[in-house]
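Exercise 7. Given the encoded structure of a 114-residue chain, write a plausible sequence.
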C-alpha cells in the first residue's frame, strides 16, 4: 500500500507539471531518487506505477529508480557514515546523537520526453 500511495503522488505531480506546461511532449522515462529509509521496494513501485498510470498522461512511461543509501552525521564529532539497519551509532565516537543527512529522499530527479 505504501508504494501505491507513492505511485499516486508521483503520477499526480507529473500530471500537474504536464497540465501546467512545464513538461511538453510524451513522457517516456521518469528518473526517481528514492532513499532507502523510505522502505520503498523499487520493483513494487515500478509495477504499481505502470498500473496506476494507465489512462493518465504518463501512461506507458518507464520509471527508473535510483536508490539512495542512508547516511548519518554524528552531532558529537561530525563524522559522516553509511547506515545499514535500524540501529546505529557513530562510527567515530559511538554516540547515538546522529542526524540523518540522506536516505529520506523521494523525488523526481528528471523526466525524459519524446
Ligand atoms: Zn561521533
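Solution.
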Amino acid at each position: 500500500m505504501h508504494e501505491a500511495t507513492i505511485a499516486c503522488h508521483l503520477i499526480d505531480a507529473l500530471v500537474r507539471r504536464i497540465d501546467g506546461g512545464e513538461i511538453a511532449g510524451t513522457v517516456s522515462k521518469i528518473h526517481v531518487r528514492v532513499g532507502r529509509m523510505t522502505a520503498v521496494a523499487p520493483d513494487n513501485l515500478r509495477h504499481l506505477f505502470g498500473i496506476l498510470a494507465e489512462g493518465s498522461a504518463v501512461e506507458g512511461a518507464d520509471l527508473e529508480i535510483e536508490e539512495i543509501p542512508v547516511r548519518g552525521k554524528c552531532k558529537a564529532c561530525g563524522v559522516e557514515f553509511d547506515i545499514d539497519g535500524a540501529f546505529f551509532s557513530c562510527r567515530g565516537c559511538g554516540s547515538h546523537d546522529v542526524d540523518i543527512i540522506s536516505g529520506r529522499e523521494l523525488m523526481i530527479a528528471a523526466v525524459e520526453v519524446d
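Remark. Residues 74, 76-77, 79, 90, 92-93, 95 surround zinc ion (CB under 6 Å). Students should compare their own answers with the one above.
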